[in-house]
Specification:
The chain has one domain. The chain contains 19 helices and 15 strands. It has a 9-stranded mixed beta sheet with strand order 3-4-6-5-9-10-11-13-15, sandwiched between helices. Strands 1-2 form a two-stranded antiparallel ribbon. A two-stranded antiparallel sheet has the order 7-8. Helix 1 runs antiparallel to helix 19. It is about 40% helix and about 10% strand.
Length: about 550
């Protein structure tokens, strides 16, 4: 029998190694890359998908403490948490955490500065009110760009039962006097409160895009960058604005020399991604295409063109009737595009498919098979905007905060939205290199607030939004599954449907740190069982060792 000291040492090693053996995932020989079912690179810590022995084997990384890393807790409340307090009070392993390695003030965050388009160069790139359009630029890597279309709905007649041209123009006139129709009141630097989640420059908040060059397109044309007309003094000039911005990025920022450009946006901005990603991709890669068509010689280095990808957040709006059988929101959109004459700015291949019904190109479901840009959809299966404005449902089965329960008819309509989404985007997400991240929860525009939130993993306990997007970015070829859809209906993804904020997670950890730390550190019921077994053996050993010889 082993001496007591050696027994304790043996069990301590067992505590480290046994979970690895159980899971079959180890970083031995895998540092900097993918193991069987987990990662062994620097990004895995923020993503929460490191192999259990990552820190030990690869010599770096920040350990998880409950559902967040030590760095995340310290960033959330630096006055309350520190490496020392987390290790002492909660038993966390903060070795390898940035906050512990580099004490002192946090590095300064680069600013996103306003760039107004020059009226002498782009005279028609104007907002609804006639002011010059603009964008915010935060320089990062010159090799990687993220072009982000700001969301903010559309201007149309508020009466969706019978929208009229007069009502739509009146609404657009009101919008022209707001920040969504003008640049007159924009600040010279974008407030950091606008740049959260996938737009953050903080590596902990945004392990995926924090150091990319961000181009944030201010939304001020009212029609998702599609129009090219002036109606009753209103400038529906979205096409001109987009063309001008891309021109500026080509001439001033060298975007054609980048290796990657991600086209993203939220809500109405995500609709713009579906409308324009193919056109932007074709433009940025035009040099590559022209040289291939016109020159039989191999392409030279001066004709480098980027890979262009699409990442729409909550823009897959469906063409659905509401609870009374009316085309409420679809008719509002048709009214806007009829008035603004903006159909010509929609997806070109879709317009060619429906020459007499261009309105169909407002809805991605009618042209998903035509989108050639590699795309990853972020969209709730129960988009709250669609529930409210398309279906006009003001109830919620299973308990949404502040809403009454649904009757049987409305509950059926509510649940049908999940199946409608999955069916509609299937032709797009089933293409090689494409995918989707879709939780069975009620929300809209999630990348700014749920980006690394473990409670919003799909499925529960699976991939966070950031983790799924990183896998999509890392895809090179082959049949890798990039479809992350909740297989359950609302509200059966429990962590997601019950999650409110990081604050609740903190309260939960404080109230029961011992139980929570076991379940959160384990990653699976099998690992939790293994750890409990080792702890029981260790307690028994302590009893044996405490007995006199």
């Amino acid at each position: 029998m082993l001496p007591c000291s050696e027994t304790v040492t043996f069990l301590a090693c067992l505590l480290c190694v046994y979970p690895v053996a159980m899971a079959g995932n180890s970083c031995v020989g895998k540092c900097g890359s993918w193991a069987e079912n987990c990662w062994c690179n620097e990004g895995c810590v923020s993503h929460g998908n490191c192999c259990p022995d990552y820190s030990e084997v690869c010599g770096r990384g920040c350990g998880k403490c409950g559902s967040n890393s030590c760095d995340e807790w310290i960033k959330w409340d630096p006055k309350r948490y520190s490496c020392a307090s987390l290790e002492k009070e909660w038993g966390c392993d903060c070795s390898g955490c940035t906050s512990c390695k580099h004490p002192g003030p946090a590095p300064s965050v680069p600013l996103a500065k306003l760039v107004l388009l020059d009226s002498t160069i782009h005279p028609e790139a104007r907002c609804l009110d006639g002011s010059m359009a603009g964008y915010y630029l935060r320089r990062g890597s010159s090799d990687r760009f993220i072009i982000y279309f700001e969301g903010g709905g559309w201007c149309y007649d508020a009466d969706c039962d019978d929208p009229t041209a007069q009502g739509t123009l009146a609404n657009c006139k009101t919008r022209a006097n707001s920040h969504l129709g003008s640049t007159k009141t924009l600040s010279s630097v974008m407030p950091e409160s606008y740049l959260k989640g996938s737009l953050s420059a903080d590596q902990v908040q945004n392990p995926v895009f924090h150091n990319w060059t961000l181009v944030y397109l201010h939304y001020c044309d009212g029609a998702s960058w599609t129009g090219d007309s002036v109606v009753n003094g209103l400038h529906f000039k979205g096409q001109r604005i987009l063309d001008a911005v891309i021109s500026e990025l080509e001439s001033a920022e060298g975007i054609r020399s980048a290796s990657r450009v991600v086209i993203s946006g939220d809500s109405a901005g995500a609709s713009a991604v579906y409308f324009h990603a193919d056109a932007i991709s074709q433009r940025l890669r035009a040099c590559h295409v022209e040289r291939k068509l016109s020159d039989s010689q191999p392409l030279e280095g001066d004709c480098k063109s980027p890979e262009v990808l699409a990442l729409p957040d909550a823009g897959f709006f469906l063409d659905l009737k509401d609870r009374w059988g009316k085309n409420c929101w679809p008719d509002q959109m048709r009214s806007l595009f009829n008035v603004s004459k903006a159909y010509g700015g929609l997806h070109k291949a879709c317009l060619a498919r429906y020459p007499s019904e261009p309105w169909q190109c407002l809805f991605p479901e009618y042209f998903t098979d035509l989108i050639s840009t590699r795309t990853f959809i972020l969209n709730s299966l129960y988009d709250s905007s669609e529930l409210t404005y398309t279906l006009r449902l003001y109830c919620c089965p299973g308990g949404c905060e502040g809403k009454p329960s649904c009757n049987a008819k409305d509950a059926k309509l509510f649940q049908a939205l999940r199946a409608e989404h999955i069916k509609a985007w299937l032709p797009l997400v089933s293409k090689p290199g494409n995918g989707v991240w879709a939780p069975a929860c009620v929300d809209h525009t999630m990348a700014w607030s749920r980006w690394t939130d473990a409670a919003w993993a799909v499925p529960a306990g699976g991939e966070t939004m950031a983790m799924a997007v990183q896998k999509w970015l890392d895809w090179e070829s082959g049949p890798q599954n990039l479809v992350f859809e909740d297989k359950v209906a609302w509200p059966n993804n429990g962590p997601c449907s019950n999650s409110k904020s990081l604050k609740l997670e903190s309260k939960k950890l404080e109230e029961n740190p011992s139980v929570d730390s076991i379940s959160d550190f384990s990653g699976s019921s099998g690992l939790a069982a293994a750890m409990v077994t080792v702890i029981v053996v260790w307690l028994f050993t302590r009893k044996v060792c405490a007995q006199p010889a």
